[in-house]
Fold Outer membrane protein beta-barrel domain-containing protein.
Amino acid sequence: MKRKFYNVLYVSILFFSTSLFAQNKLKLNVDAGYTYSSLNTNLSNLIDSKYIGRYGFGANLSAELSIFKSLFISSGFSYLQKNYEFTRTGARAGWYTKYDNEFLSLPLLIGGYLINNPNESNGVWIKVAGGMYTDYWLSMKREGQYPVFFDQQPDGSHNHVKVSDKYDFKENENNLRRFGYGLQGQAQLGYSFNKLGVYVSYNYQYGLSDIKKDNINRNQKMTINSYMLSTGLTYKFN
């Protein structure tokens, strides 16, 4: 897994370096916005339990190089918060854990312009792209509320205590996988005028890697899907 991550990192750095020598067809893009992420797994062995998605923040820096007419390749770096929550329902309501996660993501995409090409003319443009990504789990913070079982009330309920901590990846007690990968899709709507442009962007990451190293049973595989809606600026060198 580390090898895959470093291979993509190398390709991304090489792409940025070679792009600087082809500035007549190079665009730099920067955008920021909201993310929404969900953790997917099989909880059939846990009654009154579910994972729910949560919002976060994200920012992207990418370079886009035209390769043939309206086709392009794109790569860069993304900071993404992929947050989610584990919660108990029914008789266990009030018991939950919120996960705040930070990732560094490296996408490698290929796509094309469906309407207009900002490298050739100004005006409204639409583009779509798809490919893969690899990411690195920077940090995880947990905040939860749990029942105090030895403090049962007369009505059978329990008081709750709140706990928060930052996960120690050096100890890695839950055997989490810091390097991950998956598929990524992108759609953008923008307007270009001279060298500058503005756009709105939608990105979707479909996780393929299990976030836990020791999940032998494929039915217990845990993956993260993430959406991002952002606005940004683009600059073309030609």
